[in-house]
Amino acid sequence: MTSNIQISPEVYQKVIADKINETIPQASYLVRTQIYDQALKKYHQIINHIALLSNSEQRSYWLSYLLGYDDIVNLLKPLVKLTPQEQDRWIEWLEQVQQSVLNFHEYPRAITQDLKQLAKVYQNLGRSELVEIAMQKATTAALQIPDPTTRTEQLIQLVSVWLESQQKAKAQELLTQALTSAEQISNEEPYTRSNFLSSIAILYIQMGEPKRAIALAEKVANEYSPESIIIEVVRDAIKREDLHLAQAAIPKIQTVEFQAFCLGEIAVYWATHNQPRLGNRLFAQAMKQVAKREAAESHQANLIQTYSKSGQLTILLNAIQRLTNDGLKSSVLASLAIVYAQAKQPQQLQQILAQIQRLKDGEAILLSTAINVQEYNLAIALFKKIKNHGNFVYQSGLYQQIVQALLRLQNLDQALEVAKQANGDLWTEERNLMLKEIALAYADNQQWSQAIAVAKLVKNTLLKPYQVLTQAELAAKAPTIAEFTSLIQPAIAQAQTLTAIEHQALSLAAIAQAYLRTGETEQTESFLQQAIQILQQVQDDENRSRLFAQTVEYLMSQKQYIAAFKIAQAHSNSQLLEYLYNTIYYEINVNNNIEIALPVVEAESLPDRQATTLLELARIYALQQRPQDALAYLDRAFVVAQQIADPESRTITRYENSPEPDYNDRRSQYTRLVKQYVALEQQEKAQQVVAKVQETSLRDYLQAWIN
């Protein structure tokens, strides 16, 4: 089937741009899923389409968009694992892109940026000769940038590429040009000028030229922190064990606190390199320097934390004792305890703990610190000793954190022990939710006797029927029919005794989802209908909507979208159904979750949404290289799309006075159909869709897509 429709060049240009826009993420997805042949085919299509654009600005835009999308440098890193022959095919495409960059970009900045991206890709693939070619051309382009600010920025970025390639000589040469460019920036832009000079100084430090960095610091205006350069010089010198330079640079720092911190780092070096006396003397000197400054104890606490790596515990504990602020003391001791716990030095750790225990809330602060840095063994040891410091809410938060940590570590018995210990220090809701999570964790670990025992500890609360929910969710995980029955029967029996409507509905929904997981359709439907009937008895509209929403959200949290869908359909509130559908669509569209889409598409009765879901299924199957399945769902979607009511193009108003396109209307479905048919090389079927289109502009656009 062919068409005699006359289509304007403008429509063709829009189609080309749209094809580029839609193909770039497809190509990226194919690379991420390691379908490299198809990905390369898509990338060739993109570059060929860019060449067809008549507008030079459009060509330039899409070329840069391609090289900036989805962090292409890291995206293409896995290509290094391909065979040399397969890599060569990609190199051929990359060289085609490189030539397009030189042909299509008018502005040297765009050329520089895109060639820099390509150089990084070549670098990751170990193609040093191609890195050099791309970098030479990028440098030529960068030097042609008329604005010194933009030119300096690009040159500095290119220096970094050479450094990553271990090409120090080339980096030095380019950095000299960057410095010349930075010095051409107007004095009326002191911040920009100083910022670039600082960046260049840091690069000199990385290249092992600290004296040049110090010289540059003198050119940076005082209000733009030249001291930060000297501090980096000191740290780098310590790292390279050039302590003479580190010590000599410190007087160039004007701020006393910064001088002291650098001195503290030098002190750590000597203390850990067989000269503890010298280290201790320098630490004492640093502490004395900040003693008379504003917020002196805060600065001293920071110095103590810096020196905590020195191993000089007695000196550190003495310094901490001289602090008068108990909060600072606790915080510093907690940090020190973490250092010694990580170093596995239990005797020293006990000394620190002895001091912490003397301070108000000291143990609680240490426990919280240990949890935050994931030092769970220390946290657990502390937890067994800790007394009830702090207010109820703070204590409750600590219990929850420690139980969650133990669950992550699969220390289920300890998690249960802590939960029992926490009994009086938790809200009723928190305690029962915690026990429910532990019971389910035991089930996931196939420890069924423990799971059932913990489930018996769970109680229903005013807000939720936790005991029934736990039994039903455990039943859903049961390995045998006998286990399932032994768990679901008590849940059913208890659900029948509940009086609160919201408890009844939630319990019945939980029981339904358990049966759904076992494939018992009849029982699933029965319990869902019971839940619906109970919810529909609620007279107050607002309360009924709240309870429907609560039940739907519970089922969604269990990933039981089809059950949630049926509950939502029974409620007349379209917003709830829309919310649910959007969540399901997100799972399908973003996570390519076919398992969710398949049952939902059969349950959906509204053609607008059913067509959208069918088309998403087709898209996913096409991405998975299953063209026959994709085609079957496209054909179904075409039939359903024709049932969508007029008008062909619709708008919806989500917010007052802000109409927006309805992407479930017939226009949107026909557009997706044509695009997906063409992608599967089914032009005849795409032409059949175009024949159904009413709007002239849409018909022209889709015909151009086919052509």
UniProtKB/TrEMBL annotation:
It holds the Pfam family TPR_10. Gene3D superfamilies: Tetratricopeptide repeat domain. This is TPR repeat-containing protein. It comes from Tolypothrix tenuis PCC 7101. Transmembrane segments: none annotated.
